[in-house]
Write a sequence for this structure.
């Protein structure tokens, strides 16, 4: 090859390398977690600032290993000291605790009890015969009747939540399909996750980061499981007070929470 053609080949190779570098940088930038639409990246808790990075995944199904999902989707962005917050819905789904509503035959008891459930615009909860039927099956007929009886007695006194406290078993995490639910789960009702505290601890052992399993919506936040007793419920609720994972079809069931310096 003569000098002229060699120089042309060198310049072409250099330009190609530059294009590849720019393309990789663009791809890397596009893959960086960013806040969901209408949500803030940073929140202040006790004068400390925390970033919440939602992580998009495939549509989680029954049998999926959440540790594998975290390794695949979140591991590239994790740094020392990070927390991993998981949507309780996705944990329950991976455990096979979501059921097609057409396969749930509601009992007369469920259809009676659902008449007394407050309907919320932020989710179905126990406000459908299918989800109430799941609650009856989860806690048993006698316990749910006892909870309903105590709730009827105490509600006129201004005491709220007695039904859920007596039932236990995280039945407040039971939910059904809404118009904004991501398919195919817009045709499913689900229980809360089973043994969420154990799940969180087991995940920490496997991935090496603290894990919190959380039930957050635009109405409130409930902490269902934590990998360590040193993680306070109050911190978890405040850092997720604006539901950074979103309420519709964001498909971001994993959130990396990281303390940051903003000054």
């Amino acid at each position: 090859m003569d000098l002229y053609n060699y120089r042309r080949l060198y310049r072409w190779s250099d330009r190609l390398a530059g294009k590849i570098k720019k393309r990789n940088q663009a791809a890397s930038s596009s893959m960086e977690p960013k806040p969901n639409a209408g949500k803030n990246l940073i929140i202040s808790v006790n004068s400390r600032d925390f970033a919440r990075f939602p992580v998009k995944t495939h549509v989680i199904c029954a049998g999926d290993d959440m540790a594998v999902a975290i390794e695949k989707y979140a591991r590239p962005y994790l740094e020392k000291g990070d927390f991993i917050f998981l949507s309780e819905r996705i944990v329950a789904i991976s455990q096979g605790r979501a059921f097609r509503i057409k396969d749930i035959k509601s009992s007369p008891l469920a259809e009676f009890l659902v008449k007394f459930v407050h309907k919320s615009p932020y989710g179905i909860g126990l406000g459908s015969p299918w989800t109430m039927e799941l609650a009856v099956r989860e806690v048993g007929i006698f316990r749910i009747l006892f909870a309903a009886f105590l709730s009827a007695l105490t509600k006129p006194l201004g005491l709220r939540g007695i039904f859920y406290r007596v039932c236990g078993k995280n039945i407040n995490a039971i939910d059904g399909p809404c118009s904004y639910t991501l398919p195919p789960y817009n045709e499913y009702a689900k229980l809360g996750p089973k043994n969420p505290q154990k799940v969180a601890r087991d995940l920490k052992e496997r991935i090496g980061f603290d894990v919190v399993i959380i039930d957050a919506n635009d109405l409130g936040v409930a902490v269902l499981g934590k990998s360590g007793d040193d993680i306070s419920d109050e911190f978890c609720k405040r850092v997720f007070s604006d539901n950074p994972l979103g309420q519709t079809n964001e498909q971001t069931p994993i959130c990396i929470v990281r303390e940051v310096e903003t000054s």
In short: The first helix runs from residue 3 to 31. The CA atoms of residues 2 and 171 lie 78 Å apart. The chain is about 40% helix and 15% strand.
